[in-house]
Amino acid sequence: MALKVAVIGANGRVGQLLCKLLKTSDDFEPLAVVRTAEQKEYFERELGIEASLTSIEESSVDEIGAALRSQDAVVWTAGAGGKGVERIFTVDLDGAMKAIEACQKCKIDRFVMVSAVNANNREMFWNTKLRNYYIAKRTADAILRGSGLQYTILQPGSLLSESGTGQLCPLGALEDKKSAWYAIQREDVAQFIKLALEHPERTIHKTIPLANGDMSMRDFLATL
């Protein structure tokens, strides 16, 4: 039976890539959670993917729960996208909190969070222009860790838009890249989300930094 996966933030670039990837597999049945009627029409008519018109920012926990109720897993790929401090807190923080609370109420155990590089390292982000963004991400990650859900937190580096490489940087080598705020192709993030959903035994209750490197994804997964 196909795993039903709700993708919150499906209209973003990682979200779209993930929905299309899941659609190609008989093992998954994606639900695109979007915030405009135009986005819903695009997913359903152009991509043949079921969509739910649910604004994570404006909807209540119960309304979000109603949209997610039949799902087996939730993937969070949403973000304010540089639209100001207020939306950082209403989307990246409170929106994520509401999604987590909705999963708890609906007994949806599996939750994959796409966070950000070094979100757990206050010293790395405190004196940067992205401090408010990272405070929101760090807090949302901490709430997810304490939620009781079967979580996976992915912390990709700077997101790139070229073709995926299928290669990741070994965890032990990431320390050398921290000063450069390492990078990864969006296609590779989407591919690894799919792998995480396929292999909960390797990824549940883990926070996983992601950067492109020279190790195959399968080999990387085996090290977790």
Automatic annotation (TrEMBL):
Annotated signal peptide: none
Annotated transmembrane regions: none
Record domain NAD(P)-binding: where: 9-200
Matching Pfam families: NAD_binding_10
Domain of life of the native organism: Eukaryota
Protein name: LADA_0H20054g1_1
Organism for this UniProt entry: Lachancea dasiensis
